[in-house]
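Proteins fold reproducibly. Take a sample protein:
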Amino acid sequence: MEFRGGAGASELGEIRTLKPCLLLRNRSRDQHGVAASCLEELRSKACDILAIDKSLTPVTLVLAEDGTIVDDDDYFLCLPSNTKFVALANNEKWAYNNTDGGTAWVSQESFDVDETDSGAGLKWKNVARQLKEDLSNIILLSEEDLQMLIEVPCSDLAQELCQSCATVQGLQNTLQQVLDQREEARQSKQLLELYLQALEKEGNILSKQEESKAVVSEEVDAVDTGVGREISKTALTSQVLTALREKPAPELHLSSQDLELVTKEDPKTLAVALNWDVKKTETVQQACDQELTLRLQQMQSLRSLRNISARKNLLPGELQNPKRAKQDPT
């Protein structure tokens, strides 16, 4: 509601917007209705109406519902009419107090609630208000906050968000999905770190093996040296050789390029590099060749499907008459 000031204010055209509010003291049920245009005016009226000693300043105004400190005029103006404020003098701390009408039958012991339970209840309400203001705040919530909202009874959360139970149930399902995705991301990160550590460890082992092979190759006779030169001519990397030795189906763990290199390698040279017999080496090369052929066939099939799909997307007129002579306007 709007009120004009006195005659002087009327001459200046000043209009003050007064917001009706309710004032009460900490741990008190007595409420006082006032109207103020700003926080400073509300503080001043609180001192007068609630008989707060001016020497106990500063006076802090907090929301009676959850103890949120209100110290900004813009935020004050955004609050709904008849918002309840608790005036705290000097170093007083806000204490939860149920002052809603119709609850006078509740015993005084119910107000002496456990501090931990009360704090937890207020916490999920504050988090729920963040979502009520902007649903995109989901990405800013911690996993603890997400789990807390998921565990809140659907009816309580629906009442806090002013939504139906069906809508809130869908929201809680979405929160659970976000929580699950974060857990999957964490597990994937841990697996990746373990994989990188394994690769680093494997690289160190292979480098030591290569060093030992180099020392041995220097001490062998001319025949063995010739064989060593044959091995050095192989184009396969140490990782490919390791996969061939250790994997039960190595052809499934190699890229198409590596498969092609394996199939083109001389069986005797590859057998020496792997420390296998030639028959076993040829069997592995055949498996790699079959896998490579299968991948090429799949690639060709995929290209054919793409071409067919592209043709179907053409307009019927374009397909039947790809080139049409321009008609004479006459």
